[in-house]
Design a protein that fits this description.
By secondary structure, the chain is mostly helical. Helices cover about 70% and strands about 0% of the residues. A two-stranded antiparallel ribbon has the order 1-2.
Length: about 240
């Protein structure tokens, strides 16, 4: 085991032991977050790890906005907004896989990092859009028909939620750019755009099939959304 992986294991074990006192994740969620953090630090170094910590913090903060209001209407996240293992991997499985490919020396590293950045930009866009839309969305419509539906309906979108999704994608991309995980502004613009497009694609998937397919859970839909973002971003960069 290289020194970087030993460092990753020690740092993540120590930090997660401290972080378990907070209410961001469940206890088992923190254990899985430690495994994810070790993978990211071991494959990408501290910058890749810090980017996903920023994603977790930003997502947790936006979840708390208007939480009591959302809770009173039955729209809040379960467990008081705490995420469990299924949420950790639903959000980060694609990013972790791409990080492992980078760690294994698979080329092109730059292309894989674009996919990594896009997957988290899309997921933060989804979180921002969902949480802001449920709290502040004035008119919620189904993405396939534009028919008015109650907030929280699978495949529902609102103007407020869509603008929040764009803000989430921009915020996550700026984190990636600041940490030099995205190499330049032109690439960052691709990542920002893909993050929003993949979020709208996730809404489309939710409207078309999620309620019709018993095994298609929210976490699996999240993973498919991040996969779509990563593949689309890498294809655009290749072209």
């Amino acid at each position: 085991m290289s020194a970087l992986w030993i460092q990753a294991l020690v740092v993540n074990t120590f930090l997660i032991a401290l972080a378990q006192r907070t209410s961001v994740l469940t206890r088992s969620g923190w254990v899985h977050a430690a495994a994810l953090g070790t993978i990211l630090w071991g494959c990408l170094g501290w910058s890749g790890w810090l980017a996903v910590v920023a994603y977790l913090c930003l997502g947790s903060l936006v979840t708390k906005i208007g939480f009591k209001n959302k809770q009173s209407r039955g729209l809040a996240e379960a467990r008081g907004g705490q995420r469990g293992p299924e949420n950790v991997w639903g959000s980060a499985a694609v990013g972790a896989f791409l990080a492992l490919l980078v760690g294994a020396g698979v080329e092109s590293r730059e292309l894989l990092m674009v996919g990594f950045a896009a997957s988290f930009a899309a997921k933060l866009a989804d979180t921002f859009g969902s949480e802001i839309g449920k709290r502040f969305g004035r008119t919620t419509v189904l993405i396939t028909s534009l028919r008015a539906v109650p907030p929280g309906t699978e495949g529902a979108i609102s103007l407020e939620g869509t603008l929040a999704s764009a803000a989430g994608s921009i915020a996550m991309t700026l984190v990636m750019l600041t940490l030099q995980l995205v190499p330049s502004w032109p690439v960052a613009l691709v990542v920002m755009l893909v993050g929003l497009v993949a979020t709208l694609g996730e809404s489309l998937l939710g409207a078309l099939v999620q309620d019709r397919v018993a095994w298609l859970s929210n976490e699996l839909v999240n993973a498919l959304q991040t996969l779509l973002a990563a593949v689309l971003a890498m294809l655009l960069m290749t072209l």
